[in-house]
Amino acid sequence: MRYHTPTSFADAAVIAAAATGTLRFLAGGTDVLVQMRAGVVQPDDLIDLKHIPGVDEIEQTPDGGWKIGIAVPGIVLGAHDALVRDWPGVVEGMNLVGSTQVQGRATLAGNLCNGSPAADSVPGLIAAGATVTVTGPNGSREVPVEQVPAGPGRTNLAKGEVVSRITLPPRGKNGGDCYLRFIPRTEMDIAVVGCAVSLRLDGDRIVEARVALGAVAPTVILSDAAAKAIIGTTLDDAALAALTKAAQAEAKPISDKRGTKEFRIEVAGVLARRAAKIAYDRAKGLTK
Ligand SMILES: Cc1cc2nc3c(=O)[nH]c(=O)nc-3n(C[C@H](O)[C@H](O)[C@H](O)COP(=O)(O)OP(=O)(O)OC[C@H]3O[C@@H](n4cnc5c(N)ncnc54)[C@H](O)[C@@H]3O)c2cc1C
After folding, report:
1. Which of 55, 35, 51 is nearest to 43 (CA)?
2. Ligand 1 pocket check for 46: Cβ under 6 Å
3. What is the mean pLDDT of each run of 10 residues along the chain (288 residues)?
4. 189-283, what's its fold?
């Protein structure tokens, strides 16, 4: 195995583009090293991204958005008060990943690029309207997070491309978000269903919303129908019922040892309803 330590994303992309065998990037390593130890993956080239300047930084942009380095671990996100104030749902998704030990290494970029449909940080990023900068041998492009996953264990990144930054839009006024997941125990399990809602209010009325559902399809679903069910409403009972129905109609899960298809569909509706209520209360400043 060749272990590379590039000091720029351009160099990382050139190494990745030239690789002919199995290639992995190393961010926190909490997926990749576990897979290597289990013999699931034996990379011919392992590109450690942590030597690239800026990868461990969180920066607020002049417009109020956020740039997050690809090696920032969950624990650092959770300790960043201003980021948590703006995007509590994004951070709570990432902070559900693993244990304290895992939080010390695991990153948003790794969670996204590992390609799990149950990845806990991905619905929150999608609901937030986050984008990633993707750098390849011929330059960089900006990609909405929902376009990155391609199916279990796969992404739409082309050969030689690497995620070089995560961008969250400005939260602005009267906005709130939330991520909830269902697992059969209280900690350290994979989401049976996950749901994130981000919304903005004008007075009591929802004027913008994005709803993302995890673990109920090969990739996280951004549901326009679920968002439409609550936009223009004050999240009254009728809106919550419509949201529940829309989320359930959108879910296309499989049955496995963690839950049946029918159970997952039921839970998708329950979590959408609960996450929307929390996001709404956060937008009103009633809860953190
Ligand atoms: C005990 C344990 C518990 C866990 N619990 C959870 C959980 O509750 N929820 C959950 O969602 N996950 C969980 N995970 C999985 C894992 O911790 C997360 O997916 C984590 O966010 C991965 O981030 P990382 O930085 O460690 O990724 P890495 O292992 O470094 O990389 C993961 C994958 O992403 C690719 N990659 C990394 N960075 C980039 C980049 N910048 N550009 C392109 N590709 C890249 C790598 O090639 C690799 O395929 C758990 C893992 C363990 C070991």
Report:
1. 35
2. no
3. 98 98 98 97 98 98 98 98 98 96 98 98 98 97 98 97 98 97 87 97 98 98 98 98 98 94 98 98 94
4. Enolase-like; domain 1 (3.30.390)
Which CATH number is 2-168 given?
Answer: 3.30.465.10
Instruction: Report which residue type is found at 104.
Output: G
Identify the pLDDT of residue 288: 85
Express the helix, strand and coil content of the chain in percent, nearest 5 each.
35, 25, 40
Q: How many residues does the chain have?
A: 288
Q: Whose CA is nearest to atom 27 of ligand 1?
A: 110
Ligand 1 site, residue 120, Cβ cutoff 6 A:
yes
Beta strands, E only, 99-187:
131-136, 139-144, 149-151, 154-155, 162-168, 175-182
Give residue limits of the domains in the chain. 2-168, 189-283
The residue whose CA has the least distance to atom 12 of ligand 1 is 97
pTM surpassing 0.70? Answer: yes
